[in-house]
Design goal:
Largest sheet: 14 strands, antiparallel, barrel
Strand content: over 45%
CATH topology: Porin
Order of helices and strands: HHEEEEEEEEEEEHHEEHEEE
Structural class: mainly beta
CATH superfamily: monomeric porin ompg
Number of domains: 1
CATH class: Mainly Beta
Radius of gyration: 21 Å
Shape: globular
Number of helices: 5
Length: about 350
């Protein structure tokens, strides 16, 4: 039986979710990339990439994963720094930097960070194709987070983000907030999670008002008591039944059919597992059903679409993470360094 404080926390959390849903009706959600500031939905760390792109319940969630799930922040992250680099094609690069500090007076963990997207240098042309120079489009998010522990097994976290996109003369800014809850039973072998993220608005728009990539995600992770395995199941985009990009004209020309109800269920799910080879080495794997569905092309070799894998090594105060996700015949590499500052309490 839950204690009174735990019941109150669950009541407040459910009330907040209901408020969000009432303010963001399902019909108005941005689906299939039809949103502004979509870069904030990208994986912020190598471990998250290896776990399938989204994981909010991992039993050993680190500072990099706390960029998406603020409830991961805890006192053990005090003095940690996180740096991630993810190179894409055509000189496009993603950078994530985050730090954390534990404020003992308020028993609260505070995190801060920035995500920066560099799209390289792009030629600027007129309508006839004549080059008029060049420009460097970019996007960034500046984030402040905080998390607090209740009754030893509840962790509640929140983030506020300022968003900016710049494409030459076109600019847009916005503000968004996230709220995450983690519940860990006293056995410590299971962790349940709920996350509401990207609740916000555009402050300035490009040409017209656009939606932010609002998302509600639920997850559970289970660690085996007598084996070095941890398994995770994550359900994303819970406010939208069909969350695929469905081009009906293209499907009609190519003879493709829309996803059936069973495919729609699986397209919300991400499976992941981690194997601990020792106190300093982990291997991680994930499978994202939606990514495979979106990337598969009819009558072509679809390789390992949807799969991801990675590893991490701990040496003294430095943890190095590497991950890759498979996109057709290309690999999406992701590198992360977590550094623990030597600090005196």
């Amino acid at each position: 039986m839950f204690k009174r404080r735990q019941r109150n926390l669950l009541t407040y959390g459910l009330g907040f979710i209901c408020l969000i849903l009432s303010a963001n009706p399902i019909a108005g959600q941005a689906v299939g990339g039809n949103a502004v500031f979509n870069f904030i939905s990208l994986s912020p760390s190598a471990k998250t990439t290896a776990l399938g792109g989204i994981n909010i319940s991992h039993l050993e969630g680190d500072l990099g994963m706390a960029f998406t799930q603020p409830a991961f922040l805890n006192s053990e992250m005090d003095g940690q720094l996180h740096l991630s680099i993810k190179p894409y094609l055509a000189s496009i690069n993603q950078y994530n930097f985050m730090g954390a500090q534990y404020v003992n007076k308020y028993k609260t963990s505070v995190g801060w960070g920035i995500q920066y997207m560099d799209y390289g240098t792009i030629p600027m042309t007129d309508i006839a194709g004549n080059e008029l120079g060049s420009f460097r489009p970019n996007e960034y998010a500046i984030q402040i987070s905080a998390a607090h522990t209740y009754q030893s097994n509840f962790n509640v976290g929140a983030s506020v983000k300022f968003l900016q996109s710049s494409y030459g003369i076109y600019r847009s800014s916005g503000i968004a907030a996230d709220l995450g809850i983690l519940y860990t039973p006293y056995s410590g072998l299971t962790q349940w999670a709920l996350l509401v993220n990207n609740v916000g608005i555009q402050l300035t728009k490009f040409n017209q008002k656009e939606n932010l990539p609002f998302n509600i995600t639920a997850g559970v992770s289970k660690k085996l008591a007598d084996a070095p395995f941890q398994f995770s199941l994550t359900a994303q985009r819970l406010t939208v039944w069909d969350n695929t990009y469905n081009d009906t004209i293209f499907n009609s020309i190519e003879g493709l059919s829309s996803p059936n109800k069973y495919q729609n269920i699986f397209n919300h799910l991400i499976f992941a597992t981690e194997v601990n080879l020792g106190p300093s080495v982990n291997l991680t794997m994930g499978y994202n059903f939606l990514r495979r569905f979106d990337l598969n092309v009819q009558n072509q070799k679809n390789s390992l679409n949807g799969f991801s894998a990675g590893c991490s090594f701990l040496v003294n105060n430095v943890q190095v993470q590497y991950a890759n996700a498979f996109f057709q015949n290309n690999l999406n590499h992701h590198f992360t360094i977590l550094y623990k500052l030597n600090r005196r309490r």
